[in-house]
Amino acid sequence: MTRTHQRFSIQSSFLVLFKPWARLKIRPSLKMSPAWTAFSPYLLFSIAQAFNVSQKCMQDTTTFLLELSNGRPAKYAAMMYDAFGKLGSDVQGGNVNRPGSLRECQSVHTPDFSGRYCQVFLKQEPVQYFVGICVPDSCAEDEVHKLVICGNSSCLFSCLCTLSLQGSGSGLLNSGSSNSYSSLNGIRILSLLWIISGHNVQLSAWNNLDNGKRWKETVERNPLYIFAFSGPVYLAVDTFLLLGGLLSAKSLLGSIQRSDNRLSPGLLAHFLFKVQPLHLFIVCLAIGLFSVVQKGAFWFISDDEVLNCKRYWWSNLLLVNNLFTITDICAPWTWYLSIDFQFYATTPVLIFLYRLNKSVLVLVTAVLLVGSSAFSAMITASLHLPVHQPTTLVYKSYFQYYYNKPYTRYGPYLVGILAGIYMTTKDGQLLKHQWQAAVGWICSLSVMFVVVTLAYTLMDVPPRSSLPHAVYQGLHRTLWALAVAWIILACEEGYGGFVDKILSLNIWVPLSNISFACYLVHPILIILYNGQQETPIHYTNLNFFYLFMGHVVLTLMLGFALTLLIEKPYLFLKANKG
What we know:
Layout: E1 2-3, H1 13-17, H2 19-25, H3 35-51, H4 55-68, H5 75-82, H6 102-106, E2 115-124, E3 127-136, H7 141-153, H8 155-161, H9 165-173, H10 184-205, H11 212-219, H12 234-258, H13 267-292, H14 300-317, H15 335-356, H16 358-383, H17 396-403, H18 406-425, H19 434-457, H20 467-492, H21 497-503, H22 508-513, H23 515-531, H24 541-577
Parallel strand pairs: 1-2
Antiparallel strand pairs: 2-3
Helix pairs in contact: 2-8, 3-4, 8-24, 9-24, 10-12, 10-23, 10-24, 12-15, 12-18, 12-20, 13-14, 13-15, 13-23, 13-24, 15-16, 15-18, 16-17, 16-18, 16-20, 18-20, 19-20, 23-24
Pfam families: Acyl_transf_3, NRF
GO molecular function: acyltransferase activity, transferring groups other than amino-acyl groups
Protein name: Nose resistant-to-fluoxetine protein N-terminal domain-containing protein
C-alpha cells in the first residue's frame, strides 16, 4: 500500500497524479519511433537508476503506457486503466474516496506481468481520501510510490515523448505560424540563405580557387553575381540582430505582463539552455569530424579549427568567443551566438528604463547608438579598414578589432528593441493613409539601395584615414536595420503588398523552425567539402551555383535532424514542465 501526503486539488488530483496515463489516453496519435525498440533498454535502465526503480518495473510500466497510447489499446491495458479509481458524484456530501475495482485489476494477466491493486492515500486539509490504482505486479510498494511522485512531475511521460520522432517531426513541419509577426519567418530564411551563399564564396575564395585573380576581376564589383560573390552578406547578420532585439523586447514585455509586472530571474538561464545544447554539440561535432575524416590538400583550415577548439572551447561555453581574435576562435561562425547573448543580457535593463520613464529610455538609447556608430567610425579611420567584408584573410585587423565586437554591432539590436517595444505596446496603427506607407516604402528601399551600392563603391581599402569609409562604417548597419524594421511594421499594418505575401508564405514556417541548426551546421559542410579537395576549385558561375544548392540541401537535411534530436527534446521537456 502506497501512502503520500501532498496537497492536490480534489477535482484534479487524479489527472495530476497520473498525468502520464491521462495524457497518453487523450493523445492516441503519439507513436514511438522504430529506434525505440533498440534504444529503450538503455533509456529504461537510465531512468530506473535515476529513480531507484527496478528495470523490470520500469519496463512493464512503460509497456502499459505505450499500449494506452494506441488508438485501440489491448484488452489488458484497457482493463488496468478502467480499474483506476475515478471521481464520483456528491463530493460535497463526502463521497471523496475513489476505490476503483480491485477484482478487475487482479484479473489482468499478460505473459510478462499481472495487475496489482494499490491505494494511494492523499491528505488535503481537512479531507483525507484514497485513490485505487492498478500497476504491474513487478513493481514493489516503494517503487509504486516513486512512480507516483514521478507522475506528479510528468517526468516519465516527458522522457518518453522526447523519443517520439513522429510527434516532434510533425511539429517541425507544421506550416502554421504562431508568430504574430508573419513576415519574420521569410526575412529570417532569406537572410540565412544569403549567409550560406556568402560563406560558400568566402571559404572557397580565401584559399581554394585556381583562378582567384579572374574571380576578383569579374565579380567583386558586380552585384549581379549573387552566387559567386553574394555582396555585403554581413547585412544579413545585422538583420538577425534586428530580429533578435525585436523578439527579445516582445518576449520580455509579455513575460512581465504575465508575471504581475515582475521580471523573471530565469530569463538568461532560459536563453542559455535553449542555445547551448545544440551550440556545444556542434563544437564537439566539428572536433570529431575534423579529426577523423580523410584529409585533402586544403585541410590546414580544419586543422586550425581543431586546435582552436581544443584550446578555447571554454570561450564557447561562456559565450565570449567573439572577444577573441579571429585566429583563436573555436568554430568562428558561432561568434553570433555570443554577441546575441551579450545583447540579450542588456535587454532587461532597457525594458526597465522604458517602464520607468520613456524619455530616459530614448536618451540612453540615443547615447548607445551614437557611441556604437562613433566607435565603428573611429576604428575604421584609425586602422584603415575596408567597409566590405574582405575576401582575403590578409585584413585580420578587420575581424580582430571590428567585425564581431559588441561595441560596433549594437546598433541593429537597439533598433530591434525599440521596434519591439513600439509594436508590442502601440495602440492603433501608425499608418493612417496610403501616402504615408508609400513614403515609408520609398525611404526604406532607397536606404537599402544606397547601403548596398556604397558597399561596392567603397570596397577598396583606403591607404589613409578616409572620411567616407568612416561615415559609412558608422551608420550603415543602423540604417539597414531601420529599413528592415519599416518593412516588418508595414507588413503588420497591412501595407506590405506583394512583399508581405512573399514573406508570409507558409513554406517559411518549417524552414524557420530549423534555421538555428542550419546556421550552426552549414559551415561544417563547407569546410569539409573544401578541405577534402585534392585540387583547387575552378571558378565558374555554374560551379558556385551548384555548390550553393548542394550545401543548402544538405544543410536543411542535417538542420532538421539536429533540431529533432538535439534542440527539440529540451524545448519539449520545458513545454511539458510549463
